[in-house]
Amino acid sequence: MEREGKPSGISEVERAIAEALLRWYETHRRDLPWRRRRDPYAIWIAEVMLQQTRVETVIPYYERFLARFPTLQDLAAAPLEEVLKAWEGLGYYARARHLHEAARRLMEERGGEFPRTLAEWRRLPGVGPYMAAAILSIAFGQDIVALDGNAIRVLARLFAFDQDPRRPAGRRQLQQRAERLLPSGQAGAFNQALMDLGATLCTPKSPRCPECPLRAFCAAYAQGNPEAFPVRAPRRMLPHYDVTAGVIEADGRVLIAQRPLQGMLGGLWEFPGGKVEPGESLEECLQRELREELGIEVEVGEPLLTLRHTYTHMRITLHVFRCRIRSGTPQPIGCADVRWVPIAELDRYAFPRTDQRIVEWLRQEGSSSLTRQTTGRSRT
């Protein structure tokens, strides 16, 4: 354990806050599948999935993932492509790649034994300070504060904290104040109680203050402005990009490309294309991207779909065209792999959400069109 211990001189108010929170948690704790077991592996999987993803979304993915990879050994032995397919639709795919790599390291370097210190957990790919603290407190009972977004919101309102907790200095100060509340031997319950309180009552908008067990201690409630906390710096506008993708068909199959393993959406499959550069038309962009990525020259045909999607750091509009190869054979020049796949078998591959929508369109409307085109060409 890497914490120096509970600070001395804890006040009666601080003790009362922790006691009120834990009493509330005993009665109102959420019944979540990862709370039904103390297995570090299951808790780790849940914490990875819960990063930037709502609980309701995670639950079915979590249950399917553990059914497919019930142990650390199973996850480490599985091909990355299989792990990405199990993750498909959950988003933030770097989490799946890091999880798989960490599982392999744990098996190869530690014989399947899980770390017991913050420093050891932090050395694993994809594990940040919150996740390491959450696993150690919940799975191993160590007295460590773990602050997720919900817990930060509760504490910022409780103390009417006047700094931005997303900044390092603000985060450290809030962490120190939380440590003064931490009851010895009950860190797992304390951390999860803060999470549940933030998720159910102390919500970002319209918090249910009259039902809150900490209302009597809450400085923001006393001031009458709980929604003013946590303090946030102005949100910057997300950049927008136009992106193209080509649906290329031959003999009843479509061409898909695998993104490089490193980088955004690494290891996922997509309909090839890329970002429009300044001064380019959509058609020119798609021709250039397929030349650079696959080594082929194409004729850009009819537009099929226009899809919009927002990531955490940007917004895109994806313009999807039907294309025909004029010359060249597709090769993985700017991607990890290329394959010709029948439409009926596309569900074997893991795609980003936008490309999943192209697959859905092909199944519903495009497959008959592609079949007609193939039949027409075979008669000439």
From TrEMBL:
<keyword id="KW-0378">Hydrolase</keyword>
<dbReference type="GO" id="GO:0035485">
    <property type="term" value="F:adenine/guanine mispair binding"/>
</dbReference>
<comment type="function">
    <text>Adenine glycosylase active on G-A mispairs. MutY also corrects error-prone DNA synthesis past GO lesions which are due to the oxidatively damaged form of guanine: 7,8-dihydro-8-oxoguanine (8-oxo-dGTP).</text>
</comment>
<keyword id="KW-0479">Metal-binding</keyword>
<keyword id="KW-0460">Magnesium</keyword>
<keyword id="KW-0234">DNA repair</keyword>
<dbReference type="InterPro" id="IPR000086">
    <property type="entry name" value="NUDIX_hydrolase_dom"/>
</dbReference>
<dbReference type="InterPro" id="IPR011257">
    <property type="entry name" value="DNA_glycosylase"/>
</dbReference>
<dbReference type="InterPro" id="IPR004035">
    <property type="entry name" value="Endouclease-III_FeS-bd_BS"/>
</dbReference>
<comment type="similarity">
    <text>Belongs to the Nth/MutY family.</text>
</comment>
<dbReference type="GO" id="GO:0000701">
    <property type="term" value="F:purine-specific mismatch base pair DNA N-glycosylase activity"/>
</dbReference>
<dbReference type="GO" id="GO:0008413">
    <property type="term" value="F:8-oxo-7,8-dihydroguanosine triphosphate pyrophosphatase activity"/>
</dbReference>
<dbReference type="GO" id="GO:0034039">
    <property type="term" value="F:8-oxo-7,8-dihydroguanine DNA N-glycosylase activity"/>
</dbReference>
<dbReference type="GO" id="GO:0006284">
    <property type="term" value="P:base-excision repair"/>
</dbReference>
<protein>
    <recommendedName>
        <fullName>Adenine DNA glycosylase</fullName>
        <ecNumber>3.2.2.31</ecNumber>
    </recommendedName>
</protein>
<keyword id="KW-0411">Iron-sulfur</keyword>
<keyword id="KW-0227">DNA damage</keyword>
<feature type="domain" description="Nudix hydrolase">
    <location>
        <begin position="239"/>
        <end position="364"/>
    </location>
</feature>
<dbReference type="InterPro" id="IPR029119">
    <property type="entry name" value="MutY_C"/>
</dbReference>
<dbReference type="InterPro" id="IPR020084">
    <property type="entry name" value="NUDIX_hydrolase_CS"/>
</dbReference>
<dbReference type="GO" id="GO:0006298">
    <property type="term" value="P:mismatch repair"/>
</dbReference>
<dbReference type="InterPro" id="IPR005760">
    <property type="entry name" value="A/G_AdeGlyc_MutY"/>
</dbReference>
<dbReference type="GO" id="GO:0051539">
    <property type="term" value="F:4 iron, 4 sulfur cluster binding"/>
</dbReference>
<dbReference type="InterPro" id="IPR044298">
    <property type="entry name" value="MIG/MutY"/>
</dbReference>
<dbReference type="GO" id="GO:0032357">
    <property type="term" value="F:oxidized purine DNA binding"/>
</dbReference>
<dbReference type="Pfam" id="PF14815">
    <property type="entry name" value="NUDIX_4"/>
</dbReference>
<keyword id="KW-0326">Glycosidase</keyword>
<dbReference type="Pfam" id="PF00730">
    <property type="entry name" value="HhH-GPD"/>
</dbReference>
<dbReference type="GO" id="GO:0046872">
    <property type="term" value="F:metal ion binding"/>
</dbReference>
<dbReference type="InterPro" id="IPR020476">
    <property type="entry name" value="Nudix_hydrolase"/>
</dbReference>
<keyword id="KW-0004">4Fe-4S</keyword>
<feature type="binding site">
    <location>
        <position position="273"/>
    </location>
    <ligand>
        <name>Mg(2+)</name>
    </ligand>
</feature>
<feature type="binding site">
    <location>
        <begin position="270"/>
        <end position="273"/>
    </location>
    <ligand>
        <name>8-oxo-dGTP</name>
    </ligand>
</feature>
<dbReference type="InterPro" id="IPR000445">
    <property type="entry name" value="HhH_motif"/>
</dbReference>
<feature type="binding site">
    <location>
        <position position="293"/>
    </location>
    <ligand>
        <name>Mg(2+)</name>
    </ligand>
</feature>
<dbReference type="InterPro" id="IPR015797">
    <property type="entry name" value="NUDIX_hydrolase-like_dom_sf"/>
</dbReference>
<dbReference type="InterPro" id="IPR023170">
    <property type="entry name" value="HhH_base_excis_C"/>
</dbReference>
<dbReference type="InterPro" id="IPR003651">
    <property type="entry name" value="Endonuclease3_FeS-loop_motif"/>
</dbReference>
<dbReference type="InterPro" id="IPR003561">
    <property type="entry name" value="Mutator_MutT"/>
</dbReference>
<dbReference type="Pfam" id="PF00633">
    <property type="entry name" value="HHH"/>
</dbReference>
<keyword id="KW-0408">Iron</keyword>
<dbReference type="InterPro" id="IPR003265">
    <property type="entry name" value="HhH-GPD_domain"/>
</dbReference>
